[in-house]
Design a protein that fits this description.
Layout: H1 2-10, H2 23-51, H3 71-82, H4 84-106, E1 113-115, E2 118-120, H5 126-146, E3 152-156, H6 169-179, E4 182-185, H7 191-199, E5 203-207, H8 216-223, E6 226-228, H9 235-253, E7 260-262, E8 273-274, E9 288-294, H10 309-317, E10 324-328, H11 336-340, H12 342-357, E11 360-361, H13 366-376, H14 382-390
Parallel strand pairs: 3-10, 4-7, 4-9, 5-6, 5-7, 8-11
Antiparallel strand pairs: 1-2, 9-10
Helix pairs in contact: 4-5, 4-8, 5-7
Length: 391
């Protein structure tokens, strides 16, 4: 990846320069040259979007959220900036601080669980765990409501072609805790975590830096998050994989153990694609619960694939209504062959989720996403990026 980024910076696009002593040539050639360059850049962008379609924003805000907005959208955004945005920011921060205080109070005088350089409070039991769990689920749903997710459309499928409406949500969650080792979900946005917290309050894998964030760090520890260093290839990384496997196995065998939520794609997409699955969720050979998320929209897409965090939060809070559709598939019980081959297990679950969620299977991943983002941040880098991908 380092060499790729180095090439991006070391290969600026070359343009033909007119003869400074030839006034007529300068006058005649300058405009066509600009038009040709602009046309070439547009073609490069189109080709780039075809190669990296899973990360392309298709809403009215365009790539990086910097697209040219129509007048109507500008007016709606202006109104929301002075009304919805400050109100929602205040409400979101109030809910976040409230839950932080709940976590702080109910972890007082409790030593965190320390394992392989991890730190969490998932081992807490009794009323303290019950309060942290129930208040966390309620406040997560309230937070989603405050940012415009007034209704969440949930569908429970009994099999590949039929829906199961006969069981209550509480019965389903009880079964998941006893029989499922992990929840595996496609990944579109940081909002995914909020939904899963409101639904089943699982632990999840997060970057190590999250554990040090104000407010959010303690909340993550109460969830029982597994904190990882994404780029690490050391023995610590293997230790984390072992912790995840133990958590999945424990959740499958012990209904009191917190479930773990895993996004096997390893990064976010625009919601129309499903990237290759990593095998971490499937190493234990335990059953998993596949969940498919989809954010429908007319103006701004809540998917967070190629837009800055601050810009995304602002536009999200300025959207009057946000929509989330959830499809819960039946618990997937692996065959003995799948237990012996985690990659086969992961691929089969991925195929099932793609078919049930009407998602396009893509072979690109995080490395390609980084190349795409680097290209978007400078059109002069597009030709070298495309050349690398063709090679």
């Amino acid at each position: 990846m380092g060499s790729e980024l180095k090439d991006l910076n070391s290969k600026p696009a070359k343009t033909q320069q007119p003869d400074p002593n030839d006034d007529d040539a300068s006058a005649k050639d300058h405009r066509p040259l600009l038009e040709s360059t602009a046309s070439s850049a547009a073609e490069d962008i189109q080709e780039l979007e075809k190669k990296f379609a899973a990360f392309v924003r298709n809403d009215v805000y365009g790539s990086l959220g910097c697209g040219k907005l129509p007048l109507k959208e500008k007016l709606l955004l202006g109104i929301a900036l002075v009304t919805l945005l400050p109100l929602r920011l205040l409400l979101v921060m109030s809910i976040l601080v409230l839950y932080y205080l709940i976590c702080k109070i109910f972890t007082l005088c409790s030593a965190p669980n320390l394992e392989e350089d991890q730190e969490d409070y998932a081992h807490l039991g009794g009323c303290r765990r019950a309060v942290i769990l129930q208040s966390g689920r309620y406040l997560s749903r309230l937070l989603l409501f405050m940012v415009g997710f007034y209704w969440i459309n949930e569908t429970h499928k009994d099999s590949a072609n039929t829906q199961d409406n006969s069981k209550t949500e509480s019965t389903k969650q009880s079964e998941e805790r006893v029989r499922s080792g992990a929840i595996v979900s496609n990944h579109l946005s940081y909002l995914d975590v909020l939904y899963h917290m409101s639904s089943s309050f699982p632990s999840f894998v997060a970057k190590k830096s999250v554990s040090k964030l104000p407010l959010v760090g303690l909340i993550g520890k109460c969830l029982g998050c597994v904190f990882v260093q994404r780029e690490s290839k050391s023995s610590d990384f293997k230790g984390v994989a072992g912790i995840v496997t133990d958590r999945v196995r424990n959740a499958h065998q012990n209904e009191l153990a917190p479930m773990i939520l895993l996004f096997p794609e390893g990064t976010t997409t625009n919601g129309d694609f499903l990237l290759p699955f990593k095998t971490g969720a499937f190493l234990a050979g335990a059953p998993v619960m596949p969940v498919i998320l989809r954010y429908s929209y007319r103006r701004f897409s809540p998917a967070w694939e190629s837009i800055s965090g601050v810009r995304h939060v602002v536009f999200l809070l300025c959207q009057f209504v946000n929509n989330l559709e959830v499809t819960r598939l039946p618990i997937y019980h692996p065959s003995q062959q799948e237990k012996d081959n985690p990659k086969l297990y992961a691929n089969n679950v991925r195929k099932l989720m793609a078919a049930e969620g009407d998602l396009i299977v893509s072979d690109i991943g995080l490395a390609e996403k980084r190349i795409y983002l680097a290209a978007l941040n400078g059109n002069n880098r597009l030709p070298s990026v495309l050349h690398q991908k063709n090679d």
